[in-house]
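ok so I'm stuck.
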Amino acid sequence: MTGNESGGETVGPLLRRLRRAGGRTQEELAADLSVRRGYPLEQATVSRWENEERLPDPLSRALLSAEFGVPEQELKRAVQLARRLRRKQEKDVERREFISLSAGAGLAVIQPATLLSSGRRLGAEVPRHLAQRTARLRRLDDFMGGGDTYRMYAGELSVTTRLIEEGVYTENVGRGLHGIVAEQAQLAGWAAYDAGMHGEARGHYMTALAASKAAGDRSLEGNSLALLAYLEWADGGGSGIAYAEAGFEAVRSGSDSVVRALLADRLAWQYATSGQEREAEYSLSLAAEAIRDQPDDRVPDWAYWVDHDEILIMTGRCWTELRRPLRAIPALEDALGRYDDTRARDKALYLSWLASAYLDAGEVEHAVALTGRVLDLSEDLASARPTERARVIMQRLEPHRALASVSELLERA
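replied:
not stuck anymore, here's the structure
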């Protein structure tokens, strides 16, 4: 870890520079700090600080500030920068390990480009292998932002589209291939949306809608419509209710309760963001009922992440949008208590709604603490959405700038 990354000096190089400027060894600095605090401090502690094996806590920063005559805030910022860079390195390692594991566990089951020869006959195994490959690629979205995954997903979609155009296959295989295109187009669209590329997202979602109809897959069709609804809302050009209602109608009588729960959930969101409380509450009840009725049969892989906690999170988000914090906070806290930090983007997003709910409840200090967590989790994510959510909360916190914690958070942001 260097001292010049990210436009600043981290705490290790800063302390080393300050110590050397005074002509002191680590042993001499440790002795001086021991006198200042009244009990021994080992040379090894100074060494760990300078090597950033450990970062100085607030009490240690106060001692160092007095010893070197530098503001505590400068030391605090250097510690924060060191912590950010450390997290970035850890995330980079996690990403590399996950991609490596994916490749070793099925990502290379089939290389679609090897099938690209005009007039090539494609058997029933091709859609099956492509489905396995797409499932592995989909798991990357749990750990990486759309800025990291979009080109990969769009590339997969392009190759599969060419297979349909150039290959020879039976009607059943053709339906399977169109189903894969629908899934991949939804995946590419979601990554584009997450990266802030809404125009590209819309194009992919329209491709997914057409492909799902060609595949005769009502669940994929409904999900394509629900994704278009979400994009409509995000664009701020109006409500996505019409798309969301059509999406839910496509699966209302279907046997897949998990898909029904997901699309009822997304319909509830459209109602909530449009201020339609009664309709939102009814849709949330449909989602909760469907997830309770989940049978033992196979859930579509593109809905693998939908469970009771996801329904709770959407419930909390909807009640937050409706400015009902006493109903929002318990749902969000219940689900987020089981949410792992490795899913940094999603946890940052959901914590932002919890912060908003606490603001509505008048708990400004708690909202500030949660927003700090949002910023921590959002660092180095290739996703536009947590940044936008943080910006919304910052605007709401601005009237409370007189509070020291708010002022510090706004300065950090």
